[in-house]
Design brief:
With 122 residues, the chain is mainly alpha-helical. It has one domain: Up-down Bundle (3 helical TM bundles of succinate and fumarate reductases). It has five helices and no strands. Helix 1 packs across helix 3 and helix 3 runs antiparallel to helix 5. It is elongated, with a radius of gyration of 18 Å.
Length: 122
């Protein structure tokens, strides 16, 4: 059995579950925000600020940021392993794939930290 060290989890079923769970969480989040905006009578800056600075919403936003990162990583890992192959890059494929995945991990980590700073920082 071959184990890939760059996969988000240990097997395809786990990756599939991570991606489905994160998609459900993101869908529920955006439907909830849409419902808040549509049903909220006269949502202004003060109401929006009060919603977004409440501790429960900060926790939910943190979960959403992490779900976006997990969802993106599974998708990007799949794309890089499918398209950055020996057939397209020859003998350099492994190095190219690992470099691309390392760059993507750094970008995702940066985005997560930036999101957490926006949620919990200022």
């Amino acid at each position: 059995m071959v184990t890939s060290v760059t996969s988000f989890s240990r097997n395809g079923v786990s990756d599939w579950l991570v991606q489905r769970f994160s998609a459900i969480l993101l869908g529920a989040y955006f439907i909830g925000l849409f419902g808040y905006l549509v049903c909220g009578a006269g949502v202004d800056y003060a109401a929006w600020h009060a919603l977004m600075t409440s501790v429960p919403m900060k926790i939910i936003n943190t979960l959403v940021i992490l779900a976006i990162a997990a969802h993106a990583w599974v998708g990007l890992w799949t794309v890089t392993t499918d398209y950055l192959t020996r057939m397209t890059f020859g003998g350099a494929a492994t190095g190219v794939r690992l470099a691309a995945q390392a760059l993507l991990v750094l970008l995702l980590a940066g985005y997560v930290l930036w999101g957490l700073w926006m949620i919990w920082g200022a």
